[in-house]
Specification:
231 residues; mainly alpha; 7 helices; ExbB/TolQ_transport; membrane; cell division; Tol-Pal_TolQ; cell membrane
């Protein structure tokens, strides 16, 4: 009777340890694909929102009006708009408190934007370490399953007097599948991690550039307001 050499047949014939390794790797692969689709959607949305808000910001709209629009939906803000909202909110608070020192006003506004930037980047980077972990350990887990399976095959081979390739082939094949599943889990995770990390870096640079440009505009307004007050 010939052994079933299909994937399902080899899985069912595998030893409990190799089966556990395969199931673990398949679970990690499913989890990594769920993260990939989720991060792809979130990062795409963040890039689209950043482009849309930047276009609105540089359209010449009055900053107070833009802030009021953002304030009306403060709970749903993200990315650049959230940074703008936090910076301008602190800017207005400092001015209303009677603190007319340009340095104090700008420092408070910039620190507020910096905190928001850090939180936004932290949110964008969520789950990326999991992809990196899956990409780095999956091949080794698969290799462990392969080594264990081949070891069992050779132990069984040593117990018979006349060994043939037909006897050892199924055991080696089922062991090698563990390595294949490990690579199947690792390769997409590594590719996605590198791509998403690059996207996060680009967004962080875009957010940082906006902060500097917005701070320059606020500083100019503060200096202008102080000059008018002295007159």
């Amino acid at each position: 009777m010939h052994a079933d050499m299909s994937f399902l047949g080899l899985f069912l014939q595998a030893s409990p340890i190799v089966k556990a390794v395969m199931m673990l790797l398949m679970g990690m692969s499913i989890f990594s694909w769920a993260v990939i689709f989720s991060r792809r959607r979130i990062l795409g949305s963040a890039q689209k929102a950043a482009d849309s808000f930047e276009q609105r910001f540089w359209s010449g709209i009055d900053l107070t009006k833009l802030y009021q629009e953002s304030n009306a939906r403060a709970e749903h803000l993200q990315g650049l708009e959230k940074i703008f909202h936090s910076g301008f909110k602190e800017y207005m608070r400092m001015l209303k408190s009677g603190n007319r020192s340009p340095e104090a006003v700008m420092d408070g506004s910039y620190r507020s934007m910096r905190v928001t930037l850090s939180r936004e980047i932290e949110s964008l980077e969520s789950q990326l370490p999991n992809l990196a972990t899956i990409g780095s350990i999956s091949p080794y887990i698969g290799l462990f399953g392969t080594v264990w399976g081949i070891m069992n095959s050779f132990i069984a081979l040593g117990e018979v007097q006349q060994a043939t390739l037909t006897m050892v082939a199924p055991g080696i094949a089922e062991a090698l599948i563990a390595t294949a599943i490990g690579l199947f889990a690792a390769i997409p995770a590594v590719i996605a991690f590198n791509r998403f990390s690059t996207q996060v870096i680009k967004l962080e640079q875009s957010y940082g550039n906006f902060m500097e440009e917005f701070s320059t505009i606020l500083n100019r307004q503060t200096q202008s307001g102080q000059s008018q007050g002295q007159e």
